Amino acid sequence: MSLQTTSETELVDNSSKPSVLINRIDIIDIIRGVALLGILILNIPYFSMEEYFTEPWNQDTSNTNFWVHAVNIVFFEGKMRALFSMVFGAGIILFTTNKEKAGKSATWLFYKRMIWLTLFGLAHAHLLLWMGDILYFYGLIGMLAFLFRKMKPKYLAMGVPIVAIIGFVANTLFMQNIRGEYLEYKEAVALQDAGNELGEKELAAMEAWEETRKDMIPNKEEVVEHTALMKGSYAEVASHVRPMAWDGQFKYLIFSIWDMLALMLLGIALYKWGFLTLKWTQSQYIKTIWIGYGIGLPLVIFSFVYNTVHFPNVETALAFYEIHSINWVSLIYDFQRILIMMAHVALVILIYQKGYFKLLMNGLRAVGQTAFTNYIMHSVICTLVFFGYGLNQYSEWEYYQLYYLVIGIWIFQLIVSPIWLKYFLFGPLEWLWRCLTYGRIQPFVKNLYAFILVYFLLYI
Prior knowledge:
- By secondary structure, this protein is mostly helical.
- It has helices at about 25-50, 65-75, 80-100, 105-125, 135-145, 155, 160-195, 200-215, 220-230, 235-250, 255-275, 280-310, 315-325, 330-355, 360-370, 370-385, 400-425, 430-440, 450-460, and strands spanning about 5, 25.
- It contains 19 helices and two strands.
- A two-stranded antiparallel sheet has the order 1-2.
């Protein structure tokens, strides 16, 4: 199957009249759809489960939850976020290329687009109350990635191993700081237990550790309190979620920038190399699959087993860091997830080229084309099902049961998204974002007569 584009409606792109559809590349929409649906696999436990939800079964191989979790870690954890970031990077080139080829600057328009995305992210986190929002980060980091869009692909791709090493060093330093606080706290407790009067240094150490522990390692009583808040009113849920969202968006922002930036730059590189536009041969995609899974899967399986054995709960993790200042196994993470992510993409591309699962591919393409709307829909559905002001199912389901809902949402979006795009040019949030970016109302309805017919069928 050759490279296909969607060009039902094409308008000249200029500053006063932006194009409605400019040769959308189907395979990129399909990959974005895969990433969008896959992200829900990793997000849904954090909509629905209390802290430390894996501890009761994370070493019990006879438990269904264990194996569902194992599959998620091996095939999806980190890979879907990497995939989404990569496609976002490719989207930067898609947004700017036609404008720049016509001799027009896309800079201000792109930055307006990212500013609005950042604001959407803030609303998503603090009004819809999803602490795991990525729109805010993509808006900010997209502005940085834009500056590198004209760099040669080989230099863009070098950002991934560089950032992986920098990320490992940064996380190690962060953990060593926590470790230092914990060891000082343990020394102070030992002195206190021995009947010694504590000085200012020891009291400060105990206070510092308590503050860190409360932020990152809540005790069982605090977990019960947090669960009660999540099962409460909107105001109670917000009182728990908003501080965590705020910390992630501001306090720990510096730790989030580099990973997403490197993956966006990788997406730009892969677009320029033709990997994402079907310019590679099938043998090259097959080779990517073999290398990605052949190296990535043994690495992630080893890492999963190691972490399962050594870090089944908070107590064992703290005991580990009392003895070890560096967890070298964590260095595997970024490399295995990029390898497996690349294999996932190559596999999807190969299936698309072979013409298999055409109905599914059409659904994925539509989901990817309306990814913004579908992403927010995930949050609306999950908050209304699990949070206290909705159906109040928080901490009520088994881990594996969450994926019945995930599959239900997938089926719904795979069916509804193509139907929607028969009558509309964009998803509703995509359209709103476009209007705000261009500063004027944009075309929305594709087929007016069909829209009127659907309207009457639904509402009469």
